[in-house]
């Protein structure tokens, strides 16, 4: 015969847990598990947003570099190309 006596306690985070004696105490707190999953999903969503922003920043930087090269060709023709380095300094290349 199974023992139907109700037992209860609190997890390490203070969430109430209830179970029947014959089932034994839960291995993990269901509320803690839901919170852990929600945190994991939020972290994944934030990582995706960061990746999208970084891709957009790289795309923008590439477009700006192409625009600067195009402007240099218009301004200087075949005389040379203006290159802007990542640190913001400029180099002029004359052919």
What's the structural blueprint in terms of helices and strands?
Blueprint (H helix, E strand, L loop, with lengths): L5 E5 L5 E5 L9 H47 L3 E5 L5 E5 L1
Antiparallel strand pairs: 1-2, 3-4
Describe the structure.
The structure is a single chain. The protein has one helix spanning 30-76, and strands at residues 6-10, 16-20, 80-84, 90-94. The chain is of the alpha+beta class and 95 residues long. The protein has one domain. The strands form 2 sheets. It has a two-stranded antiparallel ribbon. Strands 3-4 form a two-stranded antiparallel sheet. Strand 3 (80-84) and strand 4 (90-94) form a beta hairpin. The longest helix has 47 residues, at 30-76. The protein is rod-shaped. The termini are far apart.
